[in-house]
Every structure is written in structure tokens, then in C-alpha cells.
Amino acid sequence: MQRILWRSDPAKEVQDFHLLIDHTVVYGIASAPYLALPGGDKLDHALETQRQLAALLASGGFDLSKWADNIPALCPDGESADKLFRDPDGVSTLGVLWSPANDSFALRVAPTTNLTSCTKRSVLSDVARFFDPLGWTAPVLVLGEIFIQDLWLAGLSWDEPLPDNLQSSLRPFMDAEGLLRVGGRFQHALLPFSEKYPLILAKDNHLSLLLVRETHSASLRGGPQLTHSFLLRRVWIIRANSLIRSVIHACVRCARFRAATAEQQMGRLPAEETRPSRPFQSSGVDYAGPVLLRTTKGQGHKIMKGYICLFICLSSKAVHLEAVLDLTSSFLAAFRRFTSRQGHCQLLLSDNKTNFRGAAKELRSMFRAASTFYQECIASLANNSTDWTFIPLGAPHFEGIWEAGVKSVKFHLRRIIGEHKLTFKERTTLLTQIEACLSSRPLYVLSNNPMDLTALTPGHLLIGEPLMNLPKPSLKNVNYLKNSSSYEKTLRVKKCLFFYFLS
Q1: What is the CATH number of the domain that holds 411?
Q2: Taxonomically, which superkingdom (predicted)?
């Protein structure tokens, strides 16, 4: 029912009219097209409507020549059978194709063949070709209208080729399984298929939520940047930053260790952190703990105390972790393992010995001026041309880089094992995994452009790629260098040198 308020003169009272829309079609209202095309719930009702329509048109001299219906019983007699549409493609009216066989609607769209020279003129022409007066394809065509707005905002001329960032959105890549992937320009890159062509997912997709949760757990409860960098190796989630932050914010285990920090006025960076050098040539060392270790697995085990020795590169922020059982003799062994794996350390910075002296009884004996072990450490480091320097007294801000490293290590430890006690081997294995995670962190904010290269990490400075990255394909059997890229040549020469060294 439609209510109409009307008065012929402003001085008169308003008259109230009620119109039954079920039996009347009012031109101009939103429901007029629907009411003008009625149907029937039963076959008898549809046959009666058909008879009335034919009689109404016949009274004016109009004869219905063709019928189309999803029920053949509407034309039961043989005389009217020739009036049925026999086109297998269906009936087209106002640009909409209706198939009576399966009672479905469709629109014919001619695919665009010229994708090599996309301009603003060609995009406007392609979008304007869609004829849909009923507006059924509006949810799809609105994407083209939004893209046209982006073209106007970019300030392009009519025949100017579109930039790469706009063309990439017009060229989605569909794999053999029908999944939409980022096309990109890395088809000749020596990268895994999932990293060259990440799977495109919407932020609101439930699969995106599950993948972010799984990646957050696989990165040992990493932060937004670490989780995002791991995620980009498999999928490209549109506007993933907000989804990743919401998942981390909702993580119960991460929320237990999240607390508001005070604003700190930052000082100038030391020279060792700003000058280029080999990884771990200038390093800082610090102890974390104590941590409780189990002697063996199962029942009847004993609890012993251990520590985590952290070495951090001052220039690349790469991390090396060692599990030690005490603060004295184990340090030299940990330092020898560190230099044997990471190379010679020219400068080693650590806390001032008076700070250690006030920390615990073991540290007081270790860093006492007359301590024999302290003299042994100095002598051992001097033989290796390592300058062990302590930060000034009362200046804890000098140790910010390794304290931040200790915080990052505890960030993963608390979220992975909590208060569980591990054996020495299990603790060493876990620290090695955390070391790989910390050395795979991006050194800068990740870009939202899928055409950008992988973010630089400390692992690139150590082994040429992130420590947790998938291995690159072997180039041993590649017998040509003429048509290869410089990057491929470098990798092949590097691997050939390794094979020659083994032989």
C-alpha cells in the first residue's frame, strides 16, 4: 500500500489517499518494474495471466508472436508450440540475457584484447561498453568507476600509458587452479613460485585471518613487521597491516606481555652503528637470565640454573645467541663459538663491570678488578686483537642496542615456552630458531607495493638472504651465462666456487 498526501490549494486541508500497489502500477516509483512483471506461484495462475495478457493485446490489434518461459506447459497445444523461442543462448532484453532452460540471467561481455597499451581513453571506452539499464552489475562496475577516479587523480593525459602500479591492478594472474595471484614482473627471478606470484586474498576473507594467525605463531609470536614479511612469501593480503595488527592485538599470549612504555628522549647513535663494516666486526654482548634448565627429560630430573649470552652486531642488528651454564668459564667458550661462526670481532662492548658487580654474586667475582678470570678474559681477547670496551659508569643508555636485543629474545621466549623448563639441548635449539627469526626481521618498514623487492634483513648481510627463507634453485647444471642476468651469474659463480672448493 502506498500513502499519498495531496492538496490542490495551500489553504485547504491535506487529503490522505491510500493506493493498493499490489493491483496498481505507479510509474516512477522504485517497485514499478517489479510490479509490471508479475508471475504466478502456481501453474493455473500463470496460465490465467497469460490468457489475460493475450486477450488484452488482441483487443488492441496486437498479436503476440513469440513466447519464452521456463515452464513449457504454458504452451501445451501444438498450434502454439511454434511460438516458443528455440534459441539455446536465451532471450536478450535491454542488454540482459535470460536463459529459460535454467532460469538464469547473464550479460555478454567481450574481453579486452589490447592490454599492451592501456590508456585513460581505452579504459573509459571499455567501462562504457557495459549496457546494464537495470543496474544488476553495479557491484562489479563500481570497481571500474573507482579505477577511473584513480586515473583522474593521477593527472594522466588521454593517450598516456598507465603507470605500472595502475596497470598491475588490471592484469590479475590466474594460476592453473583458478587462484588469483599477483602478476608482477619477477617471472625470470630465481625465487619460489609462491614468492614470485603471491596469492591474492581479501582482508575480510576468513582464510586470511587463519593465515595471519598461523604466520604469527610460526614467527614465534613476532611483531607486525616480522609477521608481515613472513606472510608476503606466500600470500598478498590486501591491506594486511590492519588485519595483522588486529590479530596480534587479539592474541591472548601477546597481550599478557604488552605494556605501555614511557617516552624516551633518544640520543645520537654511536659511530659503530652508523659506519659500514662486516657483520659482527663491532659487536655488543650481554647476559639474559637466569633461566631454569632440566638435567634430563621425564621424572626424576633436577633443576639447574643457566643463562643466555647475546652477541649483537652494532651495524646490521644481526643476533647470535648462546646458551651457557654459568657466568665465568662458559663465557670464553661461548665467545670462541661466536667468533668461529661469525668471524673475528674487532670491538666488543658490554656493561660496565660495576653494573655487573651490583647485579649478582657471580658477576661481582667475575668482574672484580683483581679477578683472575677477568684478567684471563682480557688476555684471551687481546691475543685475538679484540678490544673489549665497557660503557661509561652511570650511562645505561649506551647499552640500548643489546638491551633491545635481550627484549626481543624474551619477547619470543615468553610467548613460546612461558614458564616451561627445557633441557640444555632444547634451550640451545630454541635459541637458534629465535636467532634465525631475529636475523630475518626487516630493517625498514615494509612497502605496500607488490612490485618492490624483498625487504632487507640482517640475514642478507650474513648469507645473502633471510635465514628463514626458502632455498633458491640450484644452478649447477646451467651451462650458459650469455643470456643470464647479473644476479644469476653471481649465484652460479658463487655455487661453482663452492663445488670447486669441495673437489
Answers
A1: 3.30.420.10
A2: Eukaryota
3-state DSSP assignment of residue 88 = coil
Helix (H) / strand (E) element for 313: namely: strand 303-313
Whole-number Å distance between alpha carbons of 420 and 294: 10
Smallest CA-to-CA distance from 98 within 71, 70, 72 is with 70
Within 10 Å of residue 309's Cβ, how many Cβ atoms?
23
Cα dihedral 205→208→210→215 (10° resolution): -170
Q: Residue holding cell 486541508?
A: 13
Q: How many structural domains are present in the chain? A: 5
The domain of 486 spans 444-469+480-502
Distances in Å between the Cα of 339 and the Cα atoms of 24, 333, 342, 385, 457 are 91, 10, 5, 12, 21
Distance CA 1, CA 382 (A): 97
Per-residue pLDDT tens for 132-167? Answer: 777 778 888 888 888 888 888 888 888 888 887 777
Same domain, yes or no: 285 and 413? yes
Three-class DSSP category at 181: strand
With a threshold of 0.70, does the pTM exceed it? no
CA–CA separation, 226 and 466 (whole Å): 11
Is 397 found in the same domain as 295? yes
The cell for 9 is 490549494
Residues present in the chain in total: 503
On whether both 234 and 341 belong to a single domain, the answer is no
Whether 368 shows a pLDDT value over 70: the answer reads: no
**371 and 393 belong to one structural domain:** yes
Q: Which residues pair with 15 in a beta bridge?
A: 6
| Each residue's pLDDT tens digit, 51-72 | 888 888 888 888 877 777 777 7
Span 216-274, pLDDT tens digits: 988 888 888 888 888 888 888 888 888 999 999 888 888 877 776 666 676 677 777 77
Write out the three cell numbers for 448: 605496500
Give the chain's mean pLDDT: 75
- Taking the C-alpha atoms of residue 29 and residue 216, their distance in angstroms, rounded to an integer, is 53
In a domain, 242, yes or no: yes
Any bridge partners for residue 147, and if so which?
A: none
> Same structural domain for residues 448 and 435?
no
